[in-house]
Structure formats: structure tokens, C-alpha cells
Amino acid sequence: VQLQASGGGLVQPGGSLRLSCAASGNIFSINSMGWYRQAPGKERDLVALTTISGSTNYADSVKGRFTISRDNAKNTVYLQMNSLKLEDTAVYYCNAVGLRKDSSGFLVRHNSWGQGTQVTVSS
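The structure corresponding to this sequence follows.
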């Protein structure tokens, strides 16, 4: 399973960005899709997560500012980021967890990561 993320960039404090991540490959199902971020010298932390049922979970630091959404038909997850702050600067990674078919046709669990997209908030 491959994840292709896009939408990062440079934005001023208070600005907005929208990240997209599309999953492709031998996908049988995707149970959850989410966004994580990693700032220099820090661990990778959860930003937002959405499940196939539509439930969502957000880090406290982004609640009310970020919105995660998902298009199940396109295996794509989005992250709308508003009111961006300096501390939102990080590399953002998308993640997908679910089932795929292996070369023998058996269903196996996958936990897939995108390549990361840089978000820089600076004046």
C-alpha cells in the first residue's frame, strides 16, 4: 500500500493549509486514516485520526483549528488546518491501517506511511 501526501508549504501565522493523502495499491480495506507530525528533535505525534465509521480523534493542541475528513471511495484523507501557529511547524505524515492482499491472496494487516510533507508556519 502506498500513500502519497501533498499540500504542505509555507504559511504565515493565522493562515490555512489543506493536506491531502491518497492511498493506492493492493488495498482490501482501510479501517483508519490519520495524520501525524514530527518537529525537529521531537517524536512523531498524532494530530488527527478518522475511522471508517466516521469517528474522529484530535490532539488537544489542534482541536477547534484542524479538521480531518475522508473520502472512502477514493481512499483519501484530508486535513484542513486553520489558524495555524508557529508551533504547528513540522513534517506531517499520513497513515493508513487496514487489510491488503498478499501475493498468495491472503489478507494481511497493513500499517502504511506516506513520505511526509513539510508545513512551515513563519512570519
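The first strand starts at residue 2 and ends at 6.
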